Amino acid sequence: MAQNPGNGSGDVSGLSSSPDELLQAVQERGDESMETGRYVISFRVDAEDGGVQALRSQGCNVISARDFGDQAVTLEDIGDSDALVLPEVGCAVVSGNALQAHELLAQVESADSPIETVEPEYFAFSESDVDYLRGFNRAAEVIADDLRMNGGRELVMEDEIVAQVAGATWGLVACKVPPSTRGGAGIRVAVLDTGMDFGHPDFKGREFVSNTFVGQPVQDLHSHGTHCVGTACGPKAPVGAIQRYGIAYRAPIFVGKVLSNAGSGTTGSILAGIDWALANRCVVISMSLGAPTPVQAAYTTAGERALRRGALIVAAAGNHGPLFTGAPANSPTIMSVASLDTNLTPSSFSAIGKVEIAAPGRDVFSSVPRPSLHGTKSGTSMATPHVAGCAALWAESDVNLRGAKLWKRLEETAKRLPFPASRVGAGLVQAP
């Protein structure tokens, strides 16, 4: 089904422009459409080669991620290309000038065309509108305060949380992580975000593979990515007298910088990160990012390709309050994660609608870049890596739990909560 490109921009930037450059250009134009001016093509199943040929037959200068080792393509590699093909996810990012000049929309109208959809590329952002940092002691106080304030609705005993918070975060306790015998050994986890502080002392000696897709070094100068990596794959025993905050502490970590240090990215940078993660055989892909846009066909295609390859993509539902789940979490092939408060009620900021599962997202203690090292944040961004980490533990427990089977296991074992599925999905994610 063809989708007509929007009318979001006048000037169209090339593929080598960074998300920050694109965003600045859009802001200068006063454009509020969320469109970058570029486009995303989705190919029909098993028609990527035909799609590349179709693009080249129209005179497009095409580059493929497969032209680079481990498909770790960067903005510098793209140069003046018209189209970047991402074969693992069955998509291509095309400059707006190329789309118009080469009449690619006409390709979609043909019944035997390898091109299935053409849609605008959108901006995406870290799902951290309600982020804030606090010290460890203050976080423990807030947990107790929240439980007292919501005594009539609490589903976890206050004494249980307060007694264990010194040994593990409230989120890990709620997800039954501390008693689990699994650590995610051998399960490759990709965190696509703002990068990572690779010099963080809690991660000394850990196995990292990284790449940037936004024209900036992978080193995290934002903090969002480091916090998410910490929850999903942080250490079992952090340096110093610090509570445990990480789940899959033995998992190899793949850090894809798909959001800039300002927290902005594009559909293309995110798809490139997914493509890279799949090429590197990651089993779990965690994305604490999104945009308040309708379902994007490219994300649905990417999620479907991931499931077919035995990988699971989990994404933040969004911090839109009572509004709908945003992209990419609203795609049917991507697991959408809602946020829970410390009393296991839905967070007020957590989006409503397409939600598969819920996880702790309020007052989540984890790693942040030096010199602070640790801090507390809130958002569906913080809930998502809880699901990613637990997914890695389940994947380690059974080699058959991959892709759709892993998705099903997470839903089947979730702790049921007395709230609509549109708020919490199957319930609170649980570790094996």
Automatic annotation (TrEMBL):
SUPFAM superfamilies: Subtilisin-like. The active site is at 193 (charge relay system), 224 (charge relay system), 381 (charge relay system). GO terms for molecular function: serine-type endopeptidase activity. Residues 1-21 are annotated as: Disordered. Residues 184-425 form the Peptidase S8/S53 domain. Pfam families: Peptidase_S8. InterPro entries: Peptidase_S8/S53_dom (IPR000209), Peptidase_S8/S53_dom_sf (IPR036852), Peptidase_S8_Asp-AS (IPR023827), Peptidase_S8_Ser-AS (IPR023828), Peptidase_S8_subtilisin-like (IPR050131), Peptidase_S8_subtilisin-rel (IPR015500). Keywords: Hydrolase, Protease, Serine protease. One of its GO terms (biological process) is proteolysis. Belongs to the peptidase S8 family. PANTHER family: CEREVISIN-RELATED (PTHR43806:SF11), PEPTIDASE S8 (PTHR43806). This is S8 family serine peptidase. It comes from Nocardia bovistercoris.
